[in-house]
Amino acid sequence: MEFKKNQLIEVNIDDIGNEGEGIGHVDGYALFIKDAVVGDKVLARIIKTKKNYGFARVEEIIEPSSHRVEPKCSVARQCGGCTLQHLSYEKQLEYKFNKVKNCLQRIGGIQGIEDKMEPIYGMDEPFYYRNKAQFPVGYDKDGKLVTGFYAGRSHNIIDCKNCAIQHKVNEEILTKVLGYMEKHHVTAYDEKKHQGLVRHIVTRVGFVTGEIMVCLVVNGHKKDIPKLDELVTSLREIQGMTSIVINSNLEKTNRILGNEIQEVYGNPYIYDYIGNVKYQIGPLSFFQVNPVQTKVLYEKALEYAQLTGEETVWDLYCGIGTISLFLAQKAKKVYGVEIVKEAIDDARINADMNDMKNVEFFVGKAEQVLPREYEKHGVYADVIVVDPPRKGCDGTLLETMVKMEPKRIVYVSCDPATLARDVKILGDEGYGVDKIAVVDQFSHSGHVESVVLMSRVDK
Ligand code: SAH
To answer: Which of 75, 90, 220, 427 supports an S-S bond with 224, CB 3.0-4.6 Å?
Structure first.
C-alpha cells in the first residue's frame, strides 16, 4: 500500500514511541501518531512519509483505549512537557518496564531476563514531583502578560501557572511575580526584538529542607529592575523562601540562564538532602529533578554496589558528585570523574559540607581520565559505577573498565538502547548481568531510567 501526505487512515495503536507518541502499523508500515494511546482505534491524517514509516496526527478517536485517562493538567495536549499524561500511570510503568526488558533482550542479548528484573519502582504520587522549574515570561496574542510553558516544538507561551508535575508552591510564586510586573509596568522579554526585561522565572525547591529559591532571569542587571524590594517583600511571604537572585542574560540565545548571578535576598543557593547526604544547589547547578525517585535510584545503585567499607569505587560521569557521596557513606574510597568543571566545584563543596574525606574528583572526559590514571598510576577498582548521558559510554572507557577487572559494574542509565549496547560489549568481555531495576524518574514523560548490576563471571 502507498501512503501519501494528508491521506486519512484508520489504524489501531499497538505500541508507544520514544517520545510517548502512539505507534500503529498498517501492512507493516509504522505510523507515529502524537496523542494516540496504546489500544486506541483512530482515524489519522498522515503528515509526513518516509520509506518504512511515517508521521500522522489524530483526526478522530474512533474507539478510545481502555488505558486512556483524563489528564490532570488542562493544557496537557498543547504543552511540550508531559507526553503520556493521557495514559494511565499503570500503563506508563508497564511501558517503561517493557522498554528496558526488550532492549536488554534484543540488543543486550540477555537470557532469562524475567528472573533478573525487579518490579518497576513507580511513584506513589506521580504528580508535583519536580524540584526545578523554568517558566518563560512573555505576552499572548492579545498583548496580555503570561507565563507558563512553551507549546510543543515552538516558543509560543501557554498560560499555565499550575503545572501538574511541578511543586505546588510555583503557582504562588508566578502569581506574585506577574502581579508585581503588572503593577510596576515591568516588561517581559521579546525574543524576536531582543527587547524587554524579564525572560524567565526559575525556581528550585528543596523537598526535604523546604527551602525555596527564586531566580529572575533578566535581559539587564539588578539595577534595571524597578521596585525590586517590593517583589522581595512579597516573595518573602512564602514560607521557605531562603534565596532570591537575579541572573543576567543579555544574549540573543535560547539558553535560559546567563553566567552572572546577583544576590538579592538570602543565600545564592538552597540546601537539600537525598537520604543522609546534604547538597548545596545554586541556580546553575545540575541536580536531579525528581528528589523522591532519585533517592530510590541511588539507594538501588548503592545496594547493587554491595559495599562493606573496604572498597575502592570509581563513579564515572559523576555530575556534582551526587552518587559519589552516596557511595562514600559505605566505601573506603570513591573517585568521581566528570567533564564539567563547575559540577566538580559543586561536588567538592558538597564533599566538604558532608565532611567526607574519602572522595576525590577529577575534571575531564571519563574515557581519558580513567585510562590515564590506570596506565600511569595503576589505579584499582572493586566497583565501577557509570551514569552516562543518553549516548552511553565511550568504547575506550569500556575497554579500560574491563582491563581494571572490577568485581562489579553498576550501570545507571537514562537510555535503555545505549545501555543494552554497552551491556552487550561488557558481556562479551566477561561481565554477566545479575539484576536490573527500572525507576520511574520522569512520570508522564517517555523517559526511562534504570540500574543494572553486572559482575565478573569467573573464567
Ligand atoms: N551521576 C550524576 C550525573 C549524571 S548525568 C547525577 O546523578 O547527578 C551525566 C553526566 O555526565 C553529566 O554531568 C555530564 O556533564 C557528564 N559527561 C558527559 N560526557 C562526559 C564524558 N565524556 N566524561 C565525563 N563526564 C561526562
So the answer is: 220
Residue 405 CB-half CA count within 13 A: 4
Nearest CA to ligand 1 atom 11: 317
Q: What is the pTM of this model?
A: 0.92
Q: Which residues contact 215 (CB under 8 A, 6 or more apart)?
A: 201, 202, 203, 204, 244, 245, 246, 247, 257, 261, 283
The ranges assigned to domains in the chain are: 8-63, 94-124+290-456, 132-274
Residue 223 DSSP label: G
Longest C-alpha distance within the chain, in Å?
A: 74
Our measurement of the distance from residue 255's CA atom to the centroid of its chain's CA atoms, rounded to an integer in Å, reads 17
Fold of 132-274: OB fold (Dihydrolipoamide Acetyltransferase, E2P) (2.40.50)
In short, whether 337's Cβ falls inside 6 Å of ligand 1 is yes
Do the Cβ atoms of 52 and 30 come closer than 8 Å? yes
Confidence of residue 459 (pLDDT cuts 50, 70, 90): low
pLDDT digits (tens, 9 = 90+) for 308-333: 999 999 999 999 999 999 999 999 99
